[in-house]
Amino acid sequence: MNERINDTYYIGYEGQPEISFFFESPIEKHILKMWIGYFETLLDLMTQYAPSDEYILHEYCAHEGWYDGSPWEIQNIGAAIRLFESFDLNKASGEQLEQVKNIVPDIPGVAHQITAFLEKAITNGCKVYIEYD
Fold first, then answer.
1. What is the pLDDT of residue 39?
2. How far apart are CA 15 and CA 114, in angstroms?
3. Which stretches of the chain drop beneath a pLDDT of 70?
4. pLDDT at 76
5. pTM for the complete prediction?
6. Neighbours of 20 (CB within 10 A)
7. CB-based contact 31:128 (threshold 8 Å)
8. In the sheet that 28-35 helps form, which strands lie side by side, from edge to edge?
9. Residue 47 φ then ψ, to 5°
10. How far apart are CA 32 and CA 114, in angstroms?
């Protein structure tokens, strides 16, 4: 099976912890791979304004899901899409925000890549998994 890998947000972080989203279509395995720091920063910012008892944010805050067992299936892809689509850097606050703007200026791009990836999986009728390494 061919693999189609998007590692735009992992380049330069090789050898450091990574998180991958993946799904398998009948002919290809699609992978979105990123440095864990990008993903965790994104989730940290979203916990400031989105309910942290919801699906992916709950798993992140409780250190369950992909932290406990990898690969971990995203049960509600639609909810995950809505979460990442709703990312708004302007809703976050605090001194962490300034650090994020300096260190990860394209954090909205990370949210967009995840959203697009999840939408592609739904279009192909595939299950999506998160793998933590």
1. 93
2. 21
3. 94-97, 101-103, 105
4. 93
5. 0.90
6. 21
7. no
8. 2-9, 28-35, 18-24, 129-132, 72-73
9. -65, -15
10. 8
d(CA 121, CA 32): 11
CA–CA dist 31, 41 (Å, integer): 20
Burial 53-64 (b: 16+ CB within 10 A, else e): ebbbbebbeeee
**78 CB burial (10 A radius; 0-12, 13-18, 19+):** exposed
Structure tokens at 82: 């809505």
Token pair 């809703």: residue: 91
Q: Residue 70 in 3-state DSSP?
A: coil
Tokens at residue 124, please? 């192909």
| Residues, the chain | 133
φ, ψ dihedrals at 27, nearest 5°: -115, -15
DSSP state of 53: T
CB 122 within 8 A of CB 67: no
SS (H, E, C) 67-103: HCCCCEECCCHHHHHHHHHCCCHHHCCCHHHHHHHHH
* Six token digits for residue 87: 């990312």
